[in-house]
Amino acid sequence: MRILVLEDESLIALMLAMELEKAGHRVIGPASTSAASLRLAEGERPDLALLDINLGERDRDGTDVAMALLQRYGIRSLFVSGDVDMQRAMRAQPWGLLSKPYDPRSLLDTVRAIDDVLSGRVHEPRLPGYVRLAAPAGLGRLMPGHQPRAASFAAGASN
Questions:
Q1: Domain 2-153 is of which CATH architecture?
Q2: Residue-range domain boundaries for the chain
Q3: What is this structure's pTM?
Q4: What is the DSSP letter of 102?
């Protein structure tokens, strides 16, 4: 799977990229700014974006990037972040949120579950319980441990 990584902390970005590549994914980036990540997405069209939300930029954050990726290219994101404004994040229709700090295995399990849905190998996602999933349309919040039906979970995946 082609995965865009947006992370402003270089050591975290490097470790994240290495783990994803070891698992057989193609990493796009990592980018450290919102502008760089959008340029990469335009040229590479990733299948998934892993986005930190707090980038230290005054006018944009990872939520803005997620919304732009969804609107421009139909790419949904997985937020990998510590501090999240849930109401704002939900407007980007993310796959969910993996809170920092996280274990690399939990990240890879989550990416594998998203890949299974995107590739059509499964009809219902089987994300680990520690991932806060995007709720079905209309609920407007992230729900810990929620296992929605495939139709509601994947609704934004092919936009």
A1: 3-Layer(aba) Sandwich (3.40)
A2: 2-153
A3: 0.79
A4: -
